[in-house]
Write the structure tokens for this entry.
Amino acid sequence: MKKIALLLIFLAIPSFAIYVDAGLGIGGSSTDIDDTSVDKVICNDCDELAATFGVRVGGQITERFWIAGELSGLGHRYYDSDAYVQFNSYLFGPSFIFYPVDHLHLSGSIGLSWTANDTDIRGLDMYDGTGGAIEFTAAYDTGVRGHGALIGMRLFSSTNELKESEKDLSMVGVTFFVAYVHK
């Protein structure tokens, strides 16, 4: 019985297609603590920058449907010439990837979230926490023979309960991104 199972596994390996994408993006974000916008509380005249990253690895289920494990994140920085406050939220979970037509990539992800926040402002306590996150992606896939680039837009949202303070940190970001894709 073991030999038959091993034979079936080895016969299936050549037909298993692997999916890999990795990329970076930049855009805008909104960060709230207990439903109060951070830019109103911490920094009134600060500049802002949001950045995302993402890596997915998975396999093909049907010709147009893939499932992958994802690690991605959103960073939102408030800064001026004197100081900065950095909020980072990460997602780890499954990603469902669909190609309804050639070159149109749609995906959704849901998973566990955690934060890693930082500042150089003395006396401002920064806490980290855990929670949940979702992400939606729409992109153009330039792929030819399995290799290409994804060029598109990503919506990332997370809610985490901050340890010690027990406040809720919510982040929503919309970014434009470019990613390498192999499928």
The radius of gyration is 20 Å. Strands lie at 18-33, 36-37, 47-60, 65-79, 84-98, 104-115, 118-119, 129-141, 147-162, 168-182. Residues 2-12 form the longest helix (11 residues). The longest strand covers residues 18-33.
